[in-house]
TrEMBL record, chain A:
Substrates-to-products reaction catalysed: NAD(+) + NADPH + H(+)(in) = NADH + NADP(+) + H(+)(out)
Record carries keyword Cell inner membrane: yes
Protein name: proton-translocating NAD(P)(+) transhydrogenase
Membrane topology reported for the UniProt record: Multi-pass membrane protein
Cell compartment(s), UniProt: Cell inner membrane
Enzyme Commission numbers on file: 7.1.1.1
Highest taxon listed in the record's lineage: Bacteria
Stated role: The transhydrogenation between NADH and NADP is coupled to respiration and ATP hydrolysis and functions as a proton pump across the membrane.
Domain NAD(P) transhydrogenase alpha subunit C-terminal, chain residue ranges per copy: 8-90
Leader sequence residues: none
InterPro entries: NADP_transhyd_a_C
Regions that span the bilayer: 6-23, 35-53, 59-81
Native organism: Nocardioides aestuarii
Automatic annotation (TrEMBL), chain B:
Subcellular location: Cell inner membrane
Similarity section: Belongs to the PNT beta subunit family.
Keyword Electron transport: no
Classification lineage: Bacteria, Bacillati, Actinomycetota, Actinomycetes, Propionibacteriales
Keyword Hydrolase tagged: no
Protein name: NAD(P) transhydrogenase subunit beta
Membrane topology note: Multi-pass membrane protein
Residues annotated as domain NADP transhydrogenase beta-like: 7-459
Pfam family, one: PNTB
Record key words, sorted: Cell inner membrane, Cell membrane, Membrane, NAD, NADP, Translocase, Transmembrane, Transmembrane helix
Function in brief: The transhydrogenation between NADH and NADP is coupled to respiration and ATP hydrolysis and functions as a proton pump across the membrane.
Catalytic activity line of the entry: NAD(+) + NADPH + H(+)(in) = NADH + NADP(+) + H(+)(out)
EC number(s) reported in the record: 7.1.1.1
Amino acid sequence: MSEPIIWLTIFVLSVFVGIEVISKVSSTLHTPLMSGANAIHGVILLGAIIVTAHAHGFALVVGLVAIVLAAVNMVGGFVVTDRMLQMFTRRKPAKKEAAA
Amino acid sequence: MIPVWAQLAYLICAVAFILALKGLSGPRTARTGNLIGAAAAVVACALPFFYMERMDNVVWILVAIAVGSVGGVFGARRVQMTQMPQMVALFNGVGGGAAALVALLELQEIVDAPGREAGIGWFVLVATAFTVFVGSVSFAGSVVTFAKLQDLMTSRPVVFPGLAVVFGGALAAGLVLSGMLVADAAMWPGIVLALVGVAFGLLLVLPVGGADVPIVISLLNAFTGLTVAAGGYVLSNTLLLVAGTLVGASGTFLTLLMAKAMGRSVANILFGALKGGSTLGAGEASDRPVKSAGPADAAIMLGYADRVIIVPGYGLAVAQAQHTLRELVDVLGERGVEVDYAIHPVAGRMPGHMNVLLAEAQVPYEQLKEMDEINDDFKDADVVLVVGANDVVNPAAKTTPGAPIYGMPILNADEAKQVVFMKRSMRPGFAGIENELLFDERTTLLFGDAKETMGKLLSAVKAL
């Protein structure tokens, strides 16, 4: 099996996994899910680090810009998702107390 | 090239991302899922520091990561919940931009390495072109969505004569440049391709009307995911491929779910305005007669009802009236009135946005009823209180085939015995279409700022 085919296989299988894992999401969680998925693609930061590792001159500047942008995406994305989800969970124990 | 231990670590991170997405789709597991994803992302980004033979710019890289992280945390903490959609758009845009830059740098390496070009398969160059182009589209498109939602520009569709031609031209230019890049790896087609991508991104989003922008955010999110996946192939990094593909696939699926909830097709949302027919209606206030009342009258209607359904909309959150609304519901509950919130799938500015906004005001989860769950209850409701919502109760979606929102499932507020509309003015909703329900004889309007009026309504109900 040639190498591109292996990559294509990983790609196609990941497509199915991606659809399958979120297929039962309730509309309540659409916003946090979008935001969380958004944070996950911030992992392009990893790619930015790799290409910047041995860049010089102008390429180094471009690479550092890419790192800053990717870090904003990744870190900001996870933090803002957590902020949203915090509100969904905080209320639950309080509700149980009220019921008891 | 990458040591086996690091490849295994990448695999573990990929599995963690799958678990993260899985967690995010259930209310109880969502927060844990997000934390798993965050942990995996941090571990993944630390790995190159341990296995790469040449790491010349460690200090600079760490400084850049710190700068980006501080910026991200600052934005994420400061943003108000009402502004969430544009924040997600912005984060998405910078991610797409980063991916495009990464691909350009990798292209530079391919061009610079003598003799290496021969060993590079055309697949890699196709993936490079894809990453540069789609990443730039995602970047520019997200910036426009941000500007539209942040009111930095008009949220109405921007269309000009010949837009369709320019649009087609940009797409054709993108394809030609990609072809040139694949045929002969060089730097300049890559750079021009990025610029064309930016132009294409602008043209893609400008004609989209405000109400449809959230769908576009979701779509661009999926685009960025696919960009990252292609970038992973260019860099021979399996984790980027898997993570990007997961986001691309789930994002596409989510986009379709949202479009379905709005009764629209994605193609119609993107290209509706291009076909000539504007996606918006008049957008002006009407002077037809309506029945309006003061808070005291509305308080009587609500206070002596048996069953009340609240339809909250984005206007509620903009006015920051959700806390007062919760208090009102509590007081009504104490009086023995059965109260529920009816949440339209696209209430707010993004699907599920309203749930976040009400959760912020600590409204109990059980009182939030999804559309399918509550739509049959409207005919038994004594009063429906519509606060800051409009399009989601507009019967034109059922009755007027020509209306832009025709076919969108709506909340059946028009079936209730009485409707109280809390509105700032007679201006139409986000979609810019007149709402016949406002002129119905069972409808009473309560004009004023939502927060102020809600406060008056609350004291009036307390005084009953």
